[in-house]
Design a protein that fits this description.
single chain; mainly alpha; UraD-like
């Protein structure tokens, strides 16, 4: 009895698995700005499927040290308010972000996957206000969770065929893109 051939990983994941380590590490740094995390994900290739890659990302994300987390948070940059946002909402977002950064010393990160764009600004403002009440240790834990969610979202987009690039700079060489910016990060 012959077996049907086993399908390999999707094309985008094949491209990820085959790219040179330095190229993949550069792309991965756009997904989560920790060098140790990026090296670990790159070193464990090839991944047979997206679920395996995402599980490895989560595991590496849970192993981030305090300095790895600080490095990853420092790599996050504010994104612009959604197009057409009212000026008052944009001002409120900037003020909330400034208060957050002043309190915690890093950019505010939050996953917005599954939210409609018109809901995101209100959700982000409410989340910043809530999280401003956290003590620094609790907020570090919440931020780490959000970074892991963002990494999963960005990795998923990166390994799509074709990858959805939404604003991050492409990685160098081999036709392999940089990690896409996720609509999941808002500050």
């Amino acid at each position: 009895m012959s077996r049907a051939p086993t399908a390999g990983p999707p094309h985008g994941l094949q491209r990820f698995n085959a790219a040179p380590p330095a190229v993949v590490e550069t792309a991965l740094l756009g997904c989560l700005g920790s060098g140790r995390w990026a090296r670990r994900i790159a070193a464990h290739r090839p991944y047979p499927d997206l679920d395996s890659l995402l599980a490895a990302s989560d595991e590496a994300g849970y192993d981030l040290s305090f300095s790895d987390l600080a490095e990853a948070l420092a790599a996050e940059t504010p994104s612009a308010p959604p197009p057409g946002a009212p000026p008052a909402a944009t001002t409120a977002l900037r003020a909330a972000h400034a208060a957050y950064e002043s309190r915690f010393g890093h950019a505010f990160v939050i996953g917005l996957d599954g939210r409609r764009p018109e809901e995101s600004l209100g959700h982000v403002l409410a989340a910043i206000r809530t999280r401003l009440g956290h003590d620094p240790d609790h907020e570090r834990s919440v931020s780490a969770d959000e970074l892991r969610r963002l990494a999963r979202s960005r990795l998923t987009r990166l390994t799509e065929d074709p990858p959805r690039l939404v604003g991050r700079q492409p990685g160098p060489g081999a036709g392999f893109p940089g990690c896409p910016d996720s609509p999941s990060v808002a500050v």
